[in-house]
Design goal:
By secondary structure, the chain is α/β, with parallel strands linked by helices. The chain has helices spanning 16-32, 56-67, 88-96, 109-118, 133-147, 155-159, 173-185, 201-209, 222-226, 246-252, 260-263, 286-289, 296-316; strands at residues 45-50, 71-76, 101-105, 123-125, 163-167, 188-192, 216-219, 231-234, 271-274. It binds phosphoric acid mono(formamide)ester and norvaline.
Length: 319
């Protein structure tokens, strides 16, 4: 029997048990990198389509598809007929005739859903305005490496009950991913940002649709959110597409900068994480970025390993 086509558009497209499997597979891929050739995507071509800028996602997926034995096909959305009005539906149907799967970074999350619905190949969300699930899963993996060193089978369990403080733009795609993914994995998410940046009705509706209990709190008080945190996270204050609000956001979010003083209110063992790119002096101080608590480059590296595990998982379910 053919298995059902799977996509990874949001954290909850993987069950917690599958997330645990992805963590274990990623750890094995990380340990074996460069010594054994992957074959999960052998004889396959995967499209990587970007409507927005990217450094980490672009390179880690390109390298990842190659290392799994597949052929990455880099697509700049501006070069495709989609930029001249060809429909998403037709683009998805046509590209499904050539490609075995696609990784897409876009603005509207609905584009990913339409691609998945109209095409006949797995679709991976490489960031939308709504969610950044590959980053979230990588961040949890990176943290679990520290909570359960050398025991990848315990990675998912090690995250349960831990507290993450998310500071700054608490209405952005990364914050949404923590709200949704945190609930799925049993992680407490303490959001602190300006009034008006509460989690949206859309992300709350998603939690409800997935039958998940909220594990997040929202406050305008950064110190309260950080208190007792096992990890402190921030993201840029001006996400891609929000440039028109830059001046206002920089002013509003100033109290939420992660600096040495704020970080000192978390557990002494707390880690600092950031999806990058960072803007030192804005959402985080240069001192915190370079501190011993910062694990930002492990995070960046782990994108490769975790995404390879996700691609292999989807390919295995392609039927
Ligand atoms: N963190 C992240 O997704 O980085 P890029 O925008 O460089 O891909
Ligand atoms: N929130 C950021 C994440 C960048 C990886 C953005 O959407 O620009």
């Amino acid at each position: 029997m053919l298995s059902e086509m799977r996509h990874f558009l949001k954290e909850t497209d993987l069950s917690p048990a599958e997330m645990a499997q992805v963590f274990a597979a990623a750890a094995a891929l990380k340990a074996g990198r460069g010594r054994s050739a992957g074959s999960a995507l052998a004889h396959q071509s995967w499209g990587l389509m970007f409507f927005k800028k990217s450094t980490r996602t672009r390179v880690s997926f390109q390298v990842g598809v190659h290392e799994l034995g597949g052929q990455p096909v880099m697509l700049n959305a501006d070069d495709l007929q989609i930029s001249r009005g060809e429909t998403i539906a037709d683009t998805a149907r046509v590209l499904s005739r050539y490609l075995h799967g696609m990784v897409i970074r876009c603005h509207e999350h609905g584009l990913l859903e339409e691609f998945a619905q109209c095409g006949t190949m797995p679709i991976v969300n490489a960031l939308s305005d709504f969610l950044h699930p590959c980053q979230f899963l990588t961040d949890m993996f990176t943290l679990a490496e520290r909570f359960a060193p050398g025991r990848p089978e315990q990675y998912a369990a090690s995250l349960k009950g831990k507290k993450v403080a998310f500071l700054g733009d608490t209405a952005c795609n990364m914050a949404n991913s923590f709200v949704l993914g945190g609930a799925a994995l049993g992680v407490e998410i303490a959001l602190a940002g300006p009034a008006g940046f509460e989690p949206s009705a859309a992300i709350r509706a998603q939690l409800q649709a997935d039958g998940l209990k909220e594990t997040f709190t929202f406050s305008t008080d950064p110190a309260a959110a950080v208190k007792g945190a096992d990890m402190v996270y921030t993201d840029v204050w001006v996400s891609m597409g929000m440039e028109a609000e830059k001046a206002e956001r920089l002013k509003l979010m100033q109290p939420y900068q992660v600096n040495t003083q704020l970080l000192s209110l978390a557990k002494p063992t707390a880690y600092f994480m950031h999806c990058l790119p960072a803007h030192p002096g804005e959402e985080v101080s240069a001192e915190v970025l370079a501190s011993k608590q910062s694990i930002i480059f492990d995070q960046a590296e782990n994108r490769l390993h975790v995404q390879k595990a996700i691609l292999a998982h989807l390919a295995a379910h392609r039927g």
